[in-house]
Design a protein that fits this description.
With 264 residues, the protein is of the alpha/beta class. The protein is 42% helix and 23% strand. The protein is built from nine helices and ten strands. Helix 5 links the parallel strand 6 and strand 7. It is elongated, with a radius of gyration of 26 Å.
Length: 264
């Protein structure tokens, strides 16, 4: 009886050891497989977030060995990060000036304008104000108007150019509220902290808390172009180039246009 009992205990111990060993081996295999994924870091304008998040899901499904990581922010801020040596594999800007400066500094290799956008003025969805011209922003019904910081936010630069063209940049100075990017401008308008704000049409289309009160004429500001480029210092040139070309594919274009972007 004792022998049978000991034999049974030994069998159970061996089974447990074997199971733990197999589990450990499987776990190590999963960790090893995950570690083989190549991380591609994309520094992109925050106005691209809705589109790029969808495109990333598509791309990673097609390429399970790739892990796309996004660093969203104002294009000017992202430009400065790359100039200062911050890691990045691709740069997707909401302005061609930021890309051109990086190209001139020999920090970008292949690059191409992929998208266009429109500048609009939004107001809270429950606002009763009507806006047929930008000059009306000087009226007493508009006490605070939000724009992105012109020094770092392309949308802010386009807003400044537009307001300057219709000669109201100076008169509006006391009303202007500056934001770190277009998403913050949107937030200010959505919460009623400002009476109006300059954003891209693509941003306005994604919120039911604002409405487009006025579409700014394209001839009063620099063309709104979105160039993408491969960072010269990328350690994953071939993988970055593959995603760069996918951004120009029909699949990606469908996502961009569904979010309100225009193709060149």
């Amino acid at each position: 009886m004792l022998k049978r009992y000991l034999l049974g205990v030994l069998t159970i111990v061996l089974f447990v050891v074997l199971a733990v060993g197999l589990s450990s081996t499987s776990s190590e295999g999963n960790v090893e497989a995950a570690s083989k994924k190549t991380e591609i870091l994309v520094s992109a304008a925050v106005s691209l977030q809705d589109s790029l998040d969808k495109i990333a899901a598509q791309y990673e499904k097609l390429h399970p060995d790739i892990d796309l990581i996004f660093n969203y922010g104002a294009s000017g801020t992202l430009q400065k990060q790359i100039e200062q040596g911050a890691p990045a594999d691709l740069f997707f800007s909401a302005g061609d000036i930021q890309m051109s400066e990086l190209v001139d500094a020999h920090l970008i290799t292949a690059h191409e304008v992929l998208l266009k956008n429109q500048l609009v003025i939004v107001v809270p969805s429950d606002s009763k104000v009507k806006l047929s011209t930008m000059a009306q922003l000087t009226d007493s019904s508009f006490k605070r108007v939000a724009i992105g910081q012109p020094e770092s936010v392309p949308a802010g630069q386009y807003a400044q150019q537009s307001l300057t063209a219709v000669k109201v940049w100076g008169p509006l100075q006391s009303k202007l509220v500056y934001a770190k990017d277009v998403r913050q401008v949107m937030s200010y308008v959505e919460t009623g902290n400002v009476d109006a704000g300059f954003v891209y049409k693509t941003d306005a289309l994604h919120s039911n808390k604002v409405r487009i009160a006025h579409t700014v004429s394209a001839h009063v500001h620099r063309a709104i172009q979105y160039p993408a480029g491969i960072v010269k210092g990328s350690r994953h040139q071939s993988e970055s180039k593959a995603f760069y070309y996918f951004l120009q594919s029909k699949e990606a274009s469908k996502v961009f246009t569904s979010n309100g972007f225009l193709l060149p």
